[in-house]
Structures are given as C-alpha cells and as structure tokens.
Amino acid sequence: MSDRSWTRVPSVPVTPPDTPPVTVVRSAAPPPVASAADTAAGRELAPGLLRSLDPLLRGWLPRQRWFAGKGLPIGGFRLAAATELVPPGGRLGPLGLVHVLIDVEQPGRPADCYQLLLGAHPLLPSALVRAALGPAVGGPYDGLTLYDAPHDPRLAALLLERLRLPGRIGRLRFTAEPEVSFPPGLAPRVSTAEQSNTSVVYGDAFILKLFRRVSPGTNPDLELSLALARKRSRRVAEPVAWFEGLPALPADAEGTADGPAEPVTLGVLQRFLPGSSDGWALALASVAEDGDFRAEAAALGRATAEVHAALADALPVERLDGPALERIAAAMTRRLDETAAEVPSVRPYAGALRSAFDDLARLGAGGGTAGPVTAQRIHGDLHLGQALRGPDGEWVLIDFEGEPARPLADRRRPAPPVQDVAGMLRSFDYAAHHSGNGPWAARHRDAYCSGYAEVAGIDPRQQPVLIRAFETDKAVYEARYEARHRPAWLPIPLSALARLATAAPPAP
Q1: Could you tell me the pTM of the whole model?
Q2: Mapping DSSP to helix (H, G, I), strand (E, B) and coil, where does residue 460 land?
C-alpha cells in the first residue's frame, strides 16, 4: 500500500534503523480508543511482532487463494498497522486476537497491503490445524500458535459482537446502520466459495466479507451496495455494518501531524440470502440438459438494468466526449498488444481485433452513434457467479467491488453500462463452451439483452460499436488470465476472439 500517511516498520530481514515503528494497540474490551499508555506499550512490541511473523508468512501467504503475488519471491514485509482486539490472558483466557495490516514486497510489482486477522493460542484443536500459520518465536506471542482467525467460531463470533457496537479501537473504526437487529446465537462458518476475499456466514442472517488485499479508499462493494440499499433497491443484499482502518497521524519532530488519508474498507456485513442459487450453477445445469434458461436470463437482464438505473439515480452520471472515448479505446488497444505479446495464441487475431477499438475511437469523433455515450457507476465485474436467484425467483446482484486485480481508483471510476452487459454475455459464453454447447449461449445472450432492453429502453444489440469493443476487451482479459492460471480453459476466450475478429464492421 503506497499511502505514506501510514506508519511503517522497516522491511524484514534488513536491520531496522532508529525509526519509530507502528503502534500496536492493546484493548481487552470493545469501544475505547487507545490511551497514551497503550501506545507507549505497543511501540515496544511492534518490531518483535514483525520479526515473529516474517518466517510464518513466507510459507503461509503463497498458499492462500487470495494472495495476488503467487509465483514471485517475497522480498520482505512492512507492518502498516496492528491492533490487538483481545490479548492472550484476557477475557478469552489463553486465546488472543490481533488485527494486522501488512505490506508484502515482491520484485517487479508495487507492494500490496493485506489484511490479516490472527488468532493466538497455546494449543490448537484439530479442526483449526489447517488454518495455522505456525508457532511464533519471539515477539508478543512467543510460544503461541498463530492461525487464521475467521476459521475459529469463537473469534468469528467476537468479530460479529464488535460490529454490533459502533465506535473505535485504535485505528479500527466500526459502523452499523441504525435500527439493525442482530439475533443472538448466530453460528459462524467460513464460506468455501470465496477466492479473492474471505467470507464468514452467521446463521442464515448475515455474511461478512473480509477484504484481503486492501488500499486506501472506500471499497465499491460497500459504496455501491449502500447506495443501492438507500435507494430501496430489491436487487442488492443491503449492508448492515462495516469496519475500516484509519490512517495514522504521526507527529513530526515539531509536534505537527500529517493530513489524514482516506480510510481503508476492511469488511462489510450484509444480509445473507438463504436458499439462493448462483447463476453460474443454474446456467451449467441448463447447459448440461440443453435446457431453456431464457426466462431466467431475461429476468437477469431486467435486474441488471434496474441496478444501473438505481446507481445512475444515486450517483453522478457523465457524458463521454470524443477524447474520453479515444482514451478508452487506446487503453483497450494497449491491453490487446500486451496480451498478444504474452499469449502467442492471441496473435493471429490481434490485427482484426484492433478494428473493434478503432471503431470505438471513431465513435468518439462523431461517427456511427445512435446517441450519446454516458458513463456511470457500474458493477464492474458482472458475470453469472455474481448473481443470486432467491427462492422467490428474483435476482440479486452481489460483489460490487469490481475486478480485484484493477487499482481501486479504476474500479471507482464511472464507465459505460455496456461494460457490465458485455461481462454477462461473456459469462453465458463461458457456461456454454465449458460444456461444449455453443448454440445455448447465443439463445441466452439474446434473452438477456431483450430483458435488459425492457427496463433500460436501450438494447445493447443496437449499440454494436460499444458492445463489440467491450466484449472484445473482456475476452482479451480472459485470455491473459486463463493463460496464466487455467491453461485448459484458454480455448474458451480464444473461441470468442475468433468470432469477434471476424465480425463484420458495423455500418457508420
């Protein structure tokens, strides 16, 4: 994390100079802010905490699905913040809980900041052995085993208890929507569906998403879900509580403080949707039977358009002028060139695919448009797995954080709504080609667009320049991702690129 307002501890294993390390806040009970005595005590613990974590994290982090730097060596760590929520020997007996934000340095990429919630205990039960980082040697948890706390029902329950009580603990700030009821006795369990984050489900009432890779600024998953909920949208699982990391205000030699940076969104507690089925599983079942999923696809199109309309009502909308569209087209062309350089099987299509982006640039110059191109806040990573169909048959969209690999500033930037439509069209294509049923995709792509047009008043198929450009850009992204992570799936985006490369240029 590059924000310089966060206090840093020098990288391990380099011998640290005489630089004030990060504060570790000790607080046995929920709301009070750390006192001066707490702060002084914490400074003595911070270097030891980092040194004890270093060897454990080097082995544990690369094994986590949400770790973005797989395949690259870890150069070192910097401790951005640490807040002890429950000290060992406190109200939970020998069990402790510490919240950590840590920067991971790797060659060839900016440092990433990760959120860790670590339990500490002298002896782990067998059910938690798989969550263990290992025994701490030295530092404030010397002799205790550290482990991933969301997997411990006792600590996950304590986190829900903390979310019920707005206020601060050190540099953590907890917020809850007014008049939210928290039923007692909600048993926590870690969801097995997450890849880029960690989610904990509480009974059938709530689900807490813990963001693992974080950066300063409001995460769109909180920002957009909250905006939709406050517009009374029925297409969102409304947030009920969340927590953030507050930037440090280190005093300089003359006693003044730096200006505050943006808080970091760390976790969002939302309404859970029991009995729901995700669109990806439903689509795969339909493909396997060569079934008719068109009514559901059309309903999903209507739900997408409703979400776009609510976001346009809640947040600013802008018109994209010619230079803006030219910049978007240039960025798409650059991504295509980078992908073709990395993935040889994309190269035969690259020349023809550039025409999709050239058409978009010409659209910005005033050619061949049926109306103005607008940009607004959108989902940003829409596919069938981001849609849940409830027992009542209604669709709800989830996970509004956008593509996790993109910088947060990019994910918060307004974009044409057709970007979401293109993502969903690609998802129907994935579902069909994954099982070898291409005609199924065409039928259901059309049904989705028809449903979208019913609500939006704009049929994406009547915007051929926009939809071709954004679908091509998405398929290029998929080709690069599959080549890196799932080579067996690479033929799926390659098939789409072949189709898009031979598509007739739209009439001016």
Answers
A1: 0.85
A2: helix
